[in-house]
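Quick question, first post here. What does this chain look like in 3D?
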Amino acid sequence: MPQPTRPQVFIEKIMPVTLLNKQVYYEHGGNPFKGLHRWYSRKPLSFSRASELASLLPADVTAEEFEYLSGLNPRVNGIQDSTTKLYKTPPTIERIKKVQDLCEKTWGTRTPTVLDAFAGGGSIPFEAARYGFNVLASDLNPVAVVTMKAAMEYPLKFGADLQQDIDKWVKWVGDEAEKRLAEFFPSLDGEKVQNYLWAHTVVCPSCESVVPLSPNWWLDRSHGSLKKGQWSAVRPIPNLESKCIDFEMIKGKKGEGTTVITESGEEYDPESATTIARGVGKCPNCGNVIAAESIYEAARQQKIGHQLYAVAYRKGKGELNFRVTSKLDLQGFELANQAIRKKVSEFSISIPSEEIPEGFKTDQNYIRVYSDGIWAGVFNFRQLLTLVTYVEIINKAKELMRTEYELDRVEAIANYLALVLDRCVDKNCRLAHINVTGPKVESASATHSLNLMWNYPETNGCYRLWEYQAESVTDDYQKLCNLLGTKDTRNVFNIDLQQIIFKPATKVLS
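> Answer (accepted):
Ran it through. Tokens below.
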């Protein structure tokens, strides 16, 4: 059998898997790419680094040398220090020099090329760049390419200087959004609304009442509210005369099980007044059971509606509070309804009208049925108006940036704005849900599947949505610069930026 002509490498001799498993455990939930874009199959940085080094370093490197070159501290009495966390510890200049010396001796070049043809989340090219190797990375998915550019190419190319420009234009977009969207998100005097809580509705086949569907009526059952004796919920109030369901606010301390005890001593269980369970509805007005088939048929005929049942707000810098819906809240939503219809009729915007593809996940979770079969259907009217307004403002920002910067810098800033928009879409849709133990808004991508929720949150698009999602993305830029050794304007690793290429495997990006 012919023997390979290349040198034998470390990974063919041994791999400290047990030690690396501990590093992977440390990294859980702390990956520096976290704020840019969710990528479910992203590989741990620590294991990616070790795999690369083990594939490049010669077999005669000892286990202790390998641990040191990987970034771990020297063993003491044969025990490895457990305080070092590789994923957030850039290799030192000394370690990089020793690795490159060994590469030159083994391969005839100090900076061998690392190729990742399907780089996905970018862990392998990220670690290769930290050691100064030449990197060639590509992917069929354009989202992966944009994420890798934001995580590696821009920090290496522009350094920390780009942070000021990103912050400037993120703020500009947010200020413009507040001007354009303020009328659609009114607040009562002294309040600043943060979130709106919606329930999907169906018409009862028996009494023709509009029934809001929810598996429970909790608003806040967090540990903090428990300590203060202030759990919050709403209670549906039958209104057969108007053929609708009204709501009243319930606040109080924890009772037995999941009950709330009000100041008057009344007990109420927000999970006992459910109007849907296992896909089967129940009308509070007449008590009629609404079969799952009836709800499904109503969705198929595009007769599923929405009812606003509660609002989360703050007064000044006070704590988060809740109240039932006011006329002003409904007026803001109706204005948004009119505005988005006007924009569509005038062809002044382009909404995501692509069809949701058929498949096990989209069919199993009824997304295609409950969203009219197109992606625009996974948003209510005001959510859609908010997001397309962001797109319009970002496009305007790009026009202005082209008069101020070189095109490659415009691309970098625009891509960061696009990543903020991406997180806004993830948080502000009918596939998001409210986590009442937070309380907080959970994004559509919080699980590995897209699920339509019977009740869902809408974030105030006038200020809070863009502002809070931007924090997660822009804060990561400085962290990535630190991890790549570009925390100032110098490229301390002396990496040849011309040899670091991130591109789609097919022509999917302009």
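The longest helix spans residues 381-402.
The first strand starts at residue 113 and ends at 116.
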